Amino acid sequence: MSSKGLLIVVSGPSGAGKGTICKELLNQNPQIKVSISATTRQPRNGEIKGINYFFIDKNKFELMIKNDDFLEYATVYDNYYGTPKEYVMKNLEDGNDVLLEIDIVGALQIKDRFKDAVFIFILPPSLEELKNRIVGRGTESLADIEKRHGSAISEIEQFIKYDYAVINEDVLKAVGDIEAIIRAEKCRVLRRTEEIQSKF
Amino acid sequence: MSSKGLLIVVSGPSGAGKGTICKELLNQNPQIKVSISATTRQPRNGEIKGINYFFIDKNKFELMIKNDDFLEYATVYDNYYGTPKEYVMKNLEDGNDVLLEIDIVGALQIKDRFKDAVFIFILPPSLEELKNRIVGRGTESLADIEKRHGSAISEIEQFIKYDYAVINEDVLKAVGDIEAIIRAEKCRVLRRTEEIQSKF
């Protein structure tokens, strides 16, 4: 009997560094599968189909919505974004852990339908540091920076709906926290009941 | 603000190897404090006061019961055994993690009064292996072995009341599981709410 895999949902406010953390987590744990989102927006320069996104057209996306083929989806600036269900479910059934790096709204949609998933919220070390990071990108106007910083603050309030909070003071430490969470979750009695009852 | 420590309660059936695992856990993590039980029984050869047990007389023990000075206590063969509350509470308040290796009845008493503790159940890899280990001690008669094996089987059913189940296939792996559980528990949103709300 192979135990089912773990669905690991990582999200957090813009600027918390969840992308960097997830990349390093996958580098160190290549056995973890990563879910790729689907979108109807056009590929940007350098984006590769099946690596960054699955690029599909609007009709296809709406048919998939109708068929309940998404774990979650949302509309952003007239484009759809969503997490195709099939890849995630197949891997979990095969006993693979699946990582989903996703925004807060999407994560909460998944929480409603997928009680077994583990929800991890990434936080910046402080509000000052969050602002420094947003400024540091150097790609945004002052107004955009203020807007992004303001929305990050209101996003942070959502941490309370998650199972775990990881503070990104140091990328490797944050990755270590997530690895510990995954290992600990596999020991949870609620996940091992069947295995133990079949053994003893 | 220093966060409060974690009370880690480790128990499991006789022969699962919880003593060996706890010893190795403490070797590798000398910052973890270990709670010492009090008993009214006489010290055995080689037992040291304050290391193996606190040896106290019956009057003192009963006064402590009356004063609600135990986290849990029990009577075994006319002797009292109990976990003094003061040492545990003081260390938790100081932010130290405290390990309690304790039998299943005692662990469940603590669970009733101490919702914040983490309850870890140690299991043998199989019933056959459990029997081998009990036989391997070589100190017991066949009848005693059968009795101990039988009671271990009924003790195993209690795993369902714990938070985590660690299977002792390998001592170092089991210690690694417990270390991951401790690290993950410190990231639980329920334990970090105050810290995060004071920061953001």
UniProtKB/TrEMBL annotation, chains A, B:
Start and end residues of each Guanylate kinase-like domain: 5-183
CDD domains from the UniProt entry: GMPK (cd00071)
The keyword 4Fe-4S belongs to this UniProt entry's keyword annotation: no
Top-level division of the source organism's lineage: Bacteria
Annotated keywords: ATP-binding, Cytoplasm, Kinase, Nucleotide-binding, Transferase
Location in the cell: Cytoplasm
SMART domains (UniProt xref): GuKc
Classification via NCBIfam families: guanyl_kin
InterPro entries: GK/Ca_channel_bsu, Guanylate_kin-like_dom, Guanylate_kinase, Guanylate_kinase_CS, P-loop_NTPase
Family named by the database record: Belongs to the guanylate kinase family.
Molecular function terms, GO-annotated: ATP binding; GMP kinase activity
EC number: 2.7.4.8
Keyword Transferase in record: yes
Role played: Essential for recycling GMP and indirectly, cGMP.
One Pfam family from the record: Guanylate_kin
Reactions catalysed: GMP + ATP = GDP + ADP
Any one Gene Ontology cellular component term annotated for this protein: cytosol
Residues annotated for ATP binding in this entry: G12, P13, S14, G15, A16, G17, K18, G19
This protein's name: Guanylate kinase
